Amino acid sequence: RIAYVNGRYANHSDAMVHVEDRGYQLADGVYEVCEISRGFIIDMKGHLDRLDRSLRELRMDWPVERGALEFIMREVIRRNHVHNGMVYLQVTRGVAPRDHAFPTTPVRSALVVTAKRMDPKAAAKKAEKGMTVITVPENRWERVDIKTIGLLPNVLARQAAVDAGAQEAWFVDPDGTVKEGASTNAWIVTADGGLVTRPADFGILRGITRATVMKVADDLGLKVEERAFSVEEAQSAREAFVTSATSVVMPVVSIDGKPVANGHPGTVARSLREAFFAIAEKSPSC
Ligand code: PMP
C-alpha cells in the first residue's frame, strides 16, 4: 500500500509524520473520508466543500490547492488499485514546537492521504443483516459540525458499543433525543413511510451521505422531515438506519437491545441503498 505524506508517496508502513505534528500532539486537524464505488469517488465535491468549511472554522490553510488535492487523492487511489473502497485525507495545522496557541511563525499545514480497498460484497452482506445500536449520553463539545480529528468521545462510544456486542453507538441529548452515531447520521422511518433525521445544526455533523440520501429519497417519492426524534420513537419506528460515506445506508435492527419492528432490515432502507449508487455516481466529482 502507498500513502501520501507531505509531498511524497511512500510505502504505507514507512509513511510517518513528525512527533511535533500538531495533529499528533493536540488533535489540531480535520479530515474527510470519501467512498469509492466502481472507480467513482462518491460526492467528492461535497466532501471537499465540507473540508473547506472545517479549515475555515479552525483558521487553517489548505495544505495544497484544491485541484492539487483532488489530483493527489486520485493518484493515491490509482497507486493502490482501489476500485471499491475509501480514501482518507487529513490536514493538520503543521509541525511546530508544542504550544496550545497557533504557531507564531507561519508553518505549512500537513497533509496525509491514504486509500484502501473494501469488498462491496461484504458490505452488501452486512446491509442484509443490519446492525445493532446502543445509546450513550452526549458528551462532545458544541462544534461537532467541524470534522476534526479529535474523536476521543466517538472512540469511547464505539468501544462501548463493541463491549455490548453492538456495532454503533448513538449520542443522546439530556432531553432524550438522538443526535447521531459515533461515525454515522441517524434516521428513522415513520409508520406512514416518511423519513426523519435530525436537522444538521451545530449539534451534529452535516453528513455528505445524509444530503445525498435526501436527494435519493426525493427521487423515490419519499417524504423527509428534519426534526429531532427520541430513542423511544426510534425503537418503535417502522425502520431505523444510519448513513455515512463508509456504511452508505445501513439498516439498524435493534436499539439498546430492543428490536426495531420485526428485528430485520426494512424495505425503505434497502431501496435507498440500492438507489444511492446510481444517483451518487452522477454527483459532481470536483
Ligand atoms: N457523523 C459523524 C460523527 C461522522 O464521523 C460521520 C462520518 N464522517 C458522519 C456523521 C457521516 O458523514 P458522511 O456521510 O459525510 O460520511
TrEMBL record:
Keywords: Amino-acid biosynthesis, Branched-chain amino acid biosynthesis. Its EC number is 2.6.1.42. It holds the Pfam family Aminotran_4. Pathway: Amino-acid biosynthesis; L-leucine biosynthesis; L-leucine from 3-methyl-2-oxobutanoate: step 4/4; Amino-acid biosynthesis; L-isoleucine biosynthesis; L-isoleucine from 2-oxobutanoate: step 4/4; Amino-acid biosynthesis; L-valine biosynthesis; L-valine from pyruvate: step 4/4. It catalyses: L-isoleucine + 2-oxoglutarate = (S)-3-methyl-2-oxopentanoate + L-glutamate; L-leucine + 2-oxoglutarate = 4-methyl-2-oxopentanoate + L-glutamate; L-valine + 2-oxoglutarate = 3-methyl-2-oxobutanoate + L-glutamate. The keyword Nuclease does not apply. Gene3D superfamilies: 3.30.470.10, D-amino Acid Aminotransferase, subunit A, domain 2 (3.20.10.10). Transmembrane segments: none annotated. The keyword Isomerase does not apply. Acts on leucine, isoleucine and valine. PANTHER family: AMINO-ACID AMINOTRANSFERASE, AMINODEOXYCHORISMATE LYASE. Belongs to the class-IV pyridoxal-phosphate-dependent aminotransferase family. This is Probable branched-chain-amino-acid aminotransferase. It comes from Nitratireductor rhodophyticola.
